[in-house]
Amino acid sequence: MEKQKGLILVTGGAGYIGSHTVKELVKCGYKVIILDNLSAGNKRLIHPEAVFIEGDCGDSELTDRIFSKYKIDAVIHFAASIEVEESMHIPGKYIENNICSGKNLLESMKKNNCMLMIFSSSAAVYGIPKKIPVRESDDTKTINCYGFTKLAFEEMLRYYDLAYGIKSISLRYFNASGADPDGELGSMHKHPTHLIPIILQAALGERDKIKIFGTDYQTADGTCIRDFIHVTDLANAHIFALSYLMKNKISDVFNVGTGKGVSVREMIKASEEVLNTKINYEESERRSGDPPSLIANAEKIKKLGWSPKYSDLRTIIKTAYNWELKKEKERREKMG
Description:
The protein contains ten helices and 14 strands. It folds into two domains: 7-178 and 229-256, NAD(P)-binding Rossmann-like Domain (Rossmann fold, 3-Layer(aba) Sandwich); 195-226 and 259-335, UDP-galactose 4-epimerase, domain 1. By secondary structure, it is an alpha/beta fold. The longest helix has 23 residues, at 313-335. Helix 1 links the parallel strand 1 (7-11) and strand 2 (31-36). It has helices at 16-27, 60-69, 84-89, 91-111, 145-164, 195-203, 231-248, 264-275, 299-304, 313-335, and strands at residues 7-11, 31-36, 51-54, 74-77, 116-120, 167-173, 175-177, 210-213, 225-226, 228-230, 252-256, 262-263, 281-284, 293-294. The termini are far apart. The relative contact order is 0.14. The mean pLDDT is 94.
């Protein structure tokens, strides 16, 4: 084990990406405090070496107590509502959780002189990009409330830097996918909305078929195209950004992706090939808030030394499938 590098508060550290990041932080020698209200997180994903505090970022008394009790060196902020379609129907929930609670967190940081944050942003800030792949300098014009809240918090960070000197890096990442290669962590969503977990449910017989939302997009096969990045690569991008921020104390924004696009139909086909099974599907109407294509130009962070290691489709599908098999086995064992 390396010498302890610092104490990091990870909000949403019992969630999908947060838990993978906590695991990598501990491996790298950081001490970790997790703050999670478990509305989307899961106790099973909490790292045994982390201090766990159940609570909400919007609870100012709680956040003030945490920052006054612990000498926190930096915050990695994952805690947020994340479902694009839901954000179009319940915008108030997203504004409250993603903007108001984030502002409260920043206020507690300011009061207690914690001056570094890595923010879990999103490619949704770009809306429908004019150019693909999209660069950090391209226009941000959101088309859903989720993307709006992520962009609003990025702007908030900019002003907290100008006013108080809180330095931050916002990571705009694309489609998180896959599961921990060691089989210890993965998605625990009860009602998944992302493509790969839904495909895997169909492969395991947990659903009869999947829906392809929209087949008339201006893409090669008419379905949406996304940049799928393995969750462990994302986790390591957060740690890379943290190290960069601690060293340079300069706020910045980075895309995190592979630079390769995969359509819905292509992902279904790849899953059939990797898993050697037929995936039944039906074509359906478009969902509100879905852009036709989102692919990252991630050269900015790659030039600094980060690169994905697990984001080939086979590894993404296989690790996610192995995790689902593990959960299914455990469910059966509980039932006797």
